[in-house]
Design goal:
Length: 441
Amino acid sequence: MASTKPTSLSVLIKPWSLAQIAAILLAVIYLLQLPSPLRLNTDSIILLGIGNSVAEGHGFLYHGMQTHFPPGYPALVAMLNLLGIASSASLILLNCAFLGIALASCYLIYLHTLNLNPASALGLCCMVMLSYVLIKHVTIPISDVVFMGLLMLAILLTARASKDPEKTSWPWFALAVATTLEAISVRTAGVALIPALAWGLCVPWLSSFKVLWVKKPVRVWGWVAALLSMALFCGLLLSQTLYFSEMMGIFFQDSVVVRLLKNLVAHIFELGEVGLNLPWEKAHFLPKAGYALAGLFVLVLLGRGLWLRRQDFSTVEVTLLSYCGMIFLWPYFDARFWLPILPLILGFAAVPFFNGTRGRGRQVAGMILCTWFAVTGLFALAYTTSLSWSGRKFADLYGNGTLNPSYRAVLLKETYGMTNEEVMSLIRQYDSRWEKIPSPH
């Protein structure tokens, strides 16, 4: 009688099925964050305040004054308020909805632009969901995740509009422009999409430029004028924003060279946090030099990925480069600034492992990197889930200490330290359960 060999689990379960199971489990864990108490930070306090002002009919103002924040996210907050469903849970659900849009868009980008197979594309989407930067900010009522969803959708639509190198698909292009405007209304950084739109317009006639120049020079000059007008309009629009004036004030505190070097070092450090999937503030056991080296490694992988795809250069690569260029000029520092293009960072950093020369060492290195990223991501998910379900203990666990007195005053009915009336008012407004539940004392 012939003996049968035991079948391994990896043979029984195909990679596509494993990726599906992982994606479903991660989606469930994200939805488990809905009971979280309202998580505030400096930006969220202002954004919720503006949203309240809009809902009350006072316009996009914070304490009666204009701010540098675009109107998109406060308008969504105001809409939830006017519908009577504004709460910590609905704000987290709003972020999850736009995260779903971002993941669906980047899945299609991985399939049709990076030419990955479905299992690899879905696996990369799971890696995006395991990033601590995303895990941290999906529960905070700020514009980052909403902007990420709109940005990735605009990238997808722009790529679809310019898919045919001979002509632009105008219906898709119109949708891409509309989504780009929505993205800019949420975060000014959405202007990084404009070079991709211009590229999508130019590519169809670049191949036949000589013929057009001879036969229809007026059309060529018309396109050039239209592109220059678009660039001038964007420049004028940016110059009128408070963001621009504030940034210029910071930028010219030092000489241009010194400021650029400071920006470069700080943003490479942030890329190291993204790549290691560990915030430095939570991992002081790792030296800062290690984060800087990790950031440089991420840049090397991105450069290699772009180089391998040089023959298929598209609007996706243009957006990645324009956004990275903008961030390196940005004189503010936070790893969350990389969140909107996190799917592209992971996707292009993975290209050398999928499209490069195959070898045992490359496979082992890829497995080690993925395992580290997944394990650290699972720890981040476990931590944020414990916060979401911590009940009144949340007052002692969340924040860096400045908000704790205000949280304790509302959640525990204890007054100590310096409380913030605005913070307490927002907690009561968007997380009213603590007023209904009797005090533990």
